[in-house]
Amino acid sequence: MNRNYYILTAIMLILAIGTVFIHERKYTSELPASELLWDILQPSRFVTTDQVAKRIIEKDPSLLLIDVRPASEYNKFSLPNAVNVPFDSIETATGQQYFGNPGTKVVLFGDDGILANRVWILLRRLDLKNNYVMRGGLNEWIETIIQPKRPKQTDPEISFEQYNFRRAARLYFTGAKVVTGNMKKEKVVFKKRKRAAVAAGGC
Amino acid sequence: MENSIKKNNEKYINPYLGGVLLGIVMLISIFISGRELGISGSVRNTVVETAKVISPKAAENSTYYKKFLKKDTSPMSNWLDYEVLGVFLGGLLSGILFKRIKKPFIEHGKSITAKRRLIYALIGGILFGFGTRLGRGCTSGAALSGASTFSYGGVVVMFVLFGSAFAVAYFFRKLWV
Amino acid sequence: MNVHELNPKKTLGVLIVLVIVVIIGFLTMKPSRYDYKLNVNQSIQLLKDTSEINFYPYELVDVLNHKNKNVVLIDLRNKYAFGRGHIPGALSIPSFDLTHKKNLRLLKDYKKNGLTVVLYSNNQLSADGPWFFFRQIGFNNVRVLLGGYNYFLKHKNNLAATRSDNSYIKGIERFNYAKVSKSSDKSFELNQNNKPKPVIFKRRKREAVAAGGC
Amino acid sequence: MGPLVLNGFISSNWNLLIAVFIGMAFGFLLESSGFSSSRNIAGVFYGYNFVVIRVFFTAVIVAMVGLLYMGYFGWVNLSQIFILPTFLPSMITGAVIMGVGMIIGGFCPGTSFTAITIGKIDALVFAIGLYIGIFFFAEGYPFLEKFYLSANLGHVTLADVTGISLGWWALIFTVFALASFWITASIEKKVRKRIKDYKF
Q1: pLDDT tens string C111-142
Q2: Given A86, B51, B95, C112, which is the most exposed site by the fewest CB atoms within 10 A?
């Protein structure tokens, strides 16, 4: 017997014994906890009410508004064409179909940014991308779009432009409602997406 | 005598070297594509394809073909076909490198004729082909790749396959010994 | 001739390469010092019960009087903002440094000693993300200061009185959305004159806020 | 990080090219290890040539151990790799039939393909047999469907079934494989003394 075979056997055995001691990573498709905080601290997920209003007016097909408040609140009022996914149902199948679809930008909103932000964090943890949070939520929506304040004379030019936009947007969201009122709210149907890509295989 | 054996033996690489390299190839395959090797799936694809060519209607109505006809649009379903193409090329390369390529010939044990060997090969092939579909893969797809990814079914197939071959080996010893 | 009498030099070489790769793996591996302790569903359940996740500004009174010594305040703003002013007794850990080894150890010590850690930033939103993160990795003693530093600065001198204020509480409607959005153009003209807006407060009990899931 | 294709590091078109290269490595190793000879393959069941056991088990334990390390280092997300689904009744039946087919035919699909490339007609006939066998199965599928799909356990690993961690399983398999190498080496030695006429 060649001596090297003993060495080979020993190396293989040591490698295998090592596997017993390395703890197994959990079989999840979640974002590692070490990366989550970094993503949370990035401000890029926040969009302003003006940006959202602009997108709605432009009828951006890639925009999907998601109302994270409970259904009872949603039934009273919500943004046009918004879909209700209460925050406690984001992990269910019905909630999952809206998130992470390529080509759609999901904007989450609630009463103010807090709840939507928390939902965003959970979605990020589930490794779902292309989600945004409307800063300030519906309260800010009312304050800025529905009841915009006239800027002071000393304010810079840009705030007057913004004000003009908001006035137009306001007409769209309140007055124009009569025009679009008889249009049926179409439910956006998404193809069900597999949660995590798993390699297909088999012989 | 001793010399000739040695010369013959050197044509093949050390089996442990082959094994370690094969394991590494599987790891690379997992690292890149998330899956391991397989052969019989591509034979199945060929069967499905021919069925489609010969009688598209019958293929569409057959419950088995239907399962695989749908998938044909996705590139992943062709992965195996490309891999099997590679297996041919790799075998050829090795054959050239180690000078094993010969004119078409039939390898058979001393106690049987070439014709019988072919008949047995055909029967064996049919059985094996049938078995691969029930076992969801062949020795490479189910046993080798399945066991190395710790699949319960893969390990079971590995042991049952070798076990059953051992169990019946005695009855067919004339073919090989 | 038996295979075991051959010299497996190449095999040994390949296996040694494999061992080297494994060693490289060990050396380059980033150790994960923390991992999720709550799963997603548990985290959602956590959001439903806000009673023990919020830290109200009026609770600061006891902390500032040194009556309540079980609370550690952590300022998540950058060092510069901290230098310009902070809640007395607060510790400065900028949010990007929260998971540094040293800080994580500190937080673990606080947890072991049963201290409540209150995170704050300029507003609630900026401290809310880190707070939720720490809850998910198992720090169940971490709370978030409602209103944030901005609110504290405004009501520094009458913190106890903020008990009856709810302007810092999030997750409630400040308008009757549907009604306001339907308002005719005339009311809008009125608003142009910088008149105070008809803000409709929906007064709710604090319990109701909790049930709503902030 | 990995699997690279699934996590978007490599496009799926490149994946197919990579499949060719992986297949080439596979085919090369099968052929150069001696799997292109049906006598080598069948030899394992008569005790005169254990090359199949050696290559097979070495590959399995290297892949098992390597996979666990790769998962631990975070190089591969183990939840994304394909794990063969388990259907015990049909898989055991299939494996029994395959075992018989292997003894009679002397090949398994992969080895028969490499044997074709070096000009073995029996391997070609075996491959044709494979084709016919799968065709039979497809035609008989309506009768077999219920059995084929019975007792679906899904994509389970040994750890899911037994509750013993994969690290232990890797160790068990490694010890088993290494022991079998040393035992088969001595068996081979004895048997080969009896068979004089076969050139190894």
Answers
A1: 898 888 999 998 888 888 999 999 888 888 89
A2: C112
Does C177 lie in the same domain as C156? no
Q: Which of A174, A177, A180, A195 to mutate to test the interface with C (most CBs of C within 10 A)?
A: A174
Q: What structural domains does chain A harbor? A: 33-141 (3.40.250.10)
pTM of the model: 0.69
- Kindly state the DSSP code that residue B39 receives in the 8-state scheme: S
C14 inside 8 A of chain B by CB: yes
Q: Give a yes or no: residue C1 inside a domain.
A: no
CATH of the domain at C119: 3.40.250.10
So what's the pLDDT on residue C203? Answer: 41
One-letter amino acid identity for D86? T
Query: Could you tell me if residue B151 is inside a domain?
Result: yes
Indicate the pairing of strand D152-154 with strand D86-87. Answer: antiparallel
Range of C206's domain? 171-214
Where do we find the tokens 């599928």? D141
DSSP SS3 for A20: helix
Q: Which of A76, A121, A170 sits opposite C188 (nearest CB)?
A: A170
Q: Which domain holds residue B124?
A: 102-177
Q: How many domains does chain B have?
A: 1
User: What is the reported pLDDT for B5?
Assistant: 41
Task: For residue C23, tell me if it sits in a domain.
Answer: no
| Tokens 């992990």, residue located | A91
DSSP string covering A94-135, please?
HHHTTSS-TT-EEEEE-SSHHHHHHHHHHHHHTT--SEEEET
Which pair of tokens denotes residue C1? 């001739």
